[in-house]
Structure formats: C-alpha cells, structure tokens
User: Which sequence fits this backbone?
C-alpha cells in the first residue's frame, strides 16, 4: 500500500484496510513495517531482497519499532 503524496499511514489504518479486504485474521502479516520508500531497480521494480535485508536489520536492532499484533 502506497499513500498519496502528503498523506501518511498509521499501523491501525493499515490493519483496518486489511480487515476491509475480507482477509482472514490468520493471514494477516506477522509484522508490519513502515518505510519511507521502497528500494527500486533501475527499471522501477521493488528490490525485495533489499527490503528483506532492511527489515532483518530492524528486527536485529529492534530499536522500539512500532508493531501491530
């Protein structure tokens, strides 16, 4: 989910969005992370491996990152 320019999302808003998609609760993500921007390839695709690395670093450091559970 990418918000429009000038709008920021909160974790409760993301959870409400997921609930509105009629997604079973057990299929909700275990962890939600908010990032300023996605790492992109030159062709404009999201670099998923770099995104995983970013999240792994945050988990390792776990410096009070807000979580929804």
Assistant:
């Amino acid at each position: 989910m990418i918000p429009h320019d000038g709008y920021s999302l909160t974790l409760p808003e993301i959870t409400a969005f997921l609930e509105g998609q009629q997604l079973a609760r057990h299929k909700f993500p275990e962890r939600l992370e908010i990032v300023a921007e996605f790492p992109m390839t030159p062709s404009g695709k999201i670099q998923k491996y770099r995104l995983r690395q970013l999240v792994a670093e945050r988990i390792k450091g776990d410096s009070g990152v807000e979580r929804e559970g």
Observations:
- The longest helix spans residues 48-61.
- The mean pLDDT is 82.
- Helices lie at 11-20, 48-61.
